[in-house]
Amino acid sequence: MPGDIKRDDHYRKVKCQSMNKKNLNKKYGHLKAGLSYRIAKSFRDYDHNVYDEGKVLKFCGSSFLPYDAGLSLFCLLNNQETQIRLQVLPEEQEEIAHNLDQYLVPVGE
């Protein structure tokens, strides 16, 4: 369906519930915890989940695993905790991670 997020819900819920939110970074680039962002440009994450333009999410925080160049963005999407995983390598999602301001814009802009 257009506008729906296509993802493995069980995997997402387990990963989000296991994350200790107090250890998340409250800011990543232009993203700030507690603020809402509209997806301005559709994209696909590391797990091949598609995030369609127009959806609104609330950013909760981020974490980065240098060994795997793994960036995780934690947010609320459709009232569910969601983990957006991006691998910051040229052959993966580096373009998205380095240009998040083009993909996620503050609500109201």
Assess the beta-strand content as a share of residues.
35-45%
The structure class reads alpha+beta
The amount of helix comes to 10-25%
Shape: globular
Radius of gyration: 13 Å
Give the mean pLDDT: 85
Q: Treating each run of at least 4 consecutive H or I residues as one helix, how many helices?
A: 3
- Total E-strand runs: 9
| Sheet having the most strands | 5 strands, antiparallel
Distance between the termini: 26 Å
Low-pLDDT residue intervals, each spanning 5 or more residues: 1-18
Provide the spatial order of strands within the biggest beta sheet: 8-7-6-3-9
Order of helical and strand elements: HEEEEEEEEHHE
Description:
- 17% of the residues lie in helices and 38% in strands.
- It has helices at residues 9-18, 94-98, 100-103; strands at 27-28, 31-32, 36-39, 43-44, 50-51, 56-65, 70-77, 80-87, 104-106.
- Strands 8-7-6-3-9 form a five-stranded antiparallel β-sheet. A two-stranded antiparallel ribbon has the order 1-2. The chain has a two-stranded antiparallel ribbon with strand order 4-5.
- The radius of gyration is 13 Å and the shape is globular.
- The chain starts with 8 loop residues before the first helix and ends with a strand.
- Mean pLDDT is 85; it is low at 1-18.
